[in-house]
């Protein structure tokens, strides 16, 4: 097993408690166009879940005439103030980032969200400075569960996939990390509770918060206590 040299984090639901925002956005956006939100909204999505791919999915599924750029801009405007003002870190994140930074690990973000919103959330919570690489779903790249976001993140960190460990909260992200050939630790998020049993089967550790994850990392030689 390769020595771990880099830690790559998903953002929404992993670093920040923000998944509920997107449930509200789906509802507000579709209802403004006369659509009800189907219970199985993403059941027939065949591609990844990047910001751009989801915009294409909405456009095709609901016959929306707006351009992809317009859809993305509207979504961004709907949530930008929340990412700047009200979305906060999940428990133990800052302390965990402090510890891995002090111990010399390279640190990246691999998120399906846009660069604009990722920047707002990370800056507002005073953790932007920890990350040497931020790969986002608005880039020309396949989204999760494809491995491309994490592979690009590893490349930007100057590491091999086997030298990285990924932190995720949803099944698509776990699948993406595993396909990339990376180790995976998961953190519980309420919005992924229906996937929790399967997630737990696929990852090496599934924690309730980053204090539990830090303890696991110390016990397994990833962090010095």
Strand order of the largest sheet: 3-2-1-4-5-6
Classify the fold: give the CATH topology of the largest domain. Rossmann fold
For the largest beta-sheet, the strand count, sense and barrel status come to: 6 strands, parallel
**Overall geometric form:** globular
The amount of helix comes to 40-55%
Instruction: Output the radius of gyration.
Output: 17 Å
Tally the beta strands. Answer: 6
| Number of structural domains | 2
Spans of at least 5 consecutive residues whose pLDDT stays below 50 are: none
Q: Name the structural class.
A: alpha/beta
Count of helical regions: 9
CATH class membership of the largest domain: Alpha Beta
Write down the secondary-structure element order: EHHHHEHEHEHEHEH
Tell me the fraction of residues in β-strands, as a range.
5-15%
Task: Report, as a whole number of angstroms, the end-to-end distance.
Answer: 22 Å
Fourth-tier CATH superfamily name of the largest domain: HAD superfamily/HAD-like
- Give the second-level CATH assignment, the architecture of the largest domain: 3-Layer(aba) Sandwich
Mind explaining what this structure looks like?
- The protein has 225 residues and is α/β, with parallel strands linked by helices.
- The chain has two domains: 145 residues, HAD superfamily/HAD-like (Rossmann fold), CATH 3.40.50.1000; 66 residues.
- Helices cover 44% and strands 11% of the residues.
- The chain has nine helices and six strands.
- The protein has a six-stranded parallel β-sheet with strand order 3-2-1-4-5-6, with helices on both faces.
- α5 links the parallel β2 and β3.
- α1 crosses α3 and α3 runs parallel beside α5.
- The longest helix has 18 residues.
- The relative contact order is 0.18.
